[in-house]
Amino acid sequence: MTGRLIAIILWLAAGQAMAQDSTVRPLSDDELRELFIDATASGRNIRTGVNFSEYYAPDGQILGDSGGSNPVTDGCWTIRRAQMCFSYGPTSQRRTLCWNVIRNDKTVIFSRDDAPISWVATVERGNPRGYSAPKPWICELATVQADMISPRKIAE
Question: For the whole model, what pTM was predicted?
Answer without folding.
Answer: 0.75
